[in-house]
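User: I'm preparing a small set of examples for a lab meeting where we compare how different chains pack in three dimensions. I only have the primary sequence for this one, and I'd like the structure in token form so I can line it up with the others. Please keep the answer compact; I'll paste it straight into my notes.
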Amino acid sequence: LAPAQAGFEIFEQNFGNVLVGPKTKGERILIEGRVIDGSGTPLRDVLLEIWQANAAGKYNHPADRQNKPLDPDFRGWGRACSDFESGLYQFQTIKPGPVVGRHGRVMAPHVNFWIVARGINIGLSTRMYFSDETAANAEDPVLNSIEWEVRRKTLIAQREQRGSEVVYRFDIRFQGHEETVFFDI
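Assistant: Understood. Below is the structure token output for the 185-residue chain.
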């Protein structure tokens, strides 16, 4: 699914983990984390895809009919594999804006994830929200559909500052008491 990481150059243009171009609007961020199995071991051969709205809160998709501007320099979709040595995955992107969802309800800025790994019969879907969007998260209809606060916290990425880089740490846990919430979509 990501042959370039395994050393095979079979596509003219590989799907990568960089969603931004030189003129992309918005706050540039790095999303990184590990996918962790039930024993607490980071998995080293996981494929992750993300899709997200741009900084204005609009998806680059015909179904998004919001009256918001598209950003021609932002792809809005990326694919990465966890590193074969460390298990770490990374995406270079921007922080998305809020999106209007069903029934006109505003959703907090978020990133959608799809995860595939050995031993998983179907891909797993989840969302990542931002720790510095407390007020927006408190009003998000999807996040608030999760009954227990301890479970909601599994979807909140923690913001870190590393020199000039803004990093959101988002570990995904397949099992255990901190198991990430997955959605049946």
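A couple of notes for your slides: The two ends are 21 Å apart (CA to CA). The chain is about 5% helix and 30% strand.

User: Perfect, thanks.
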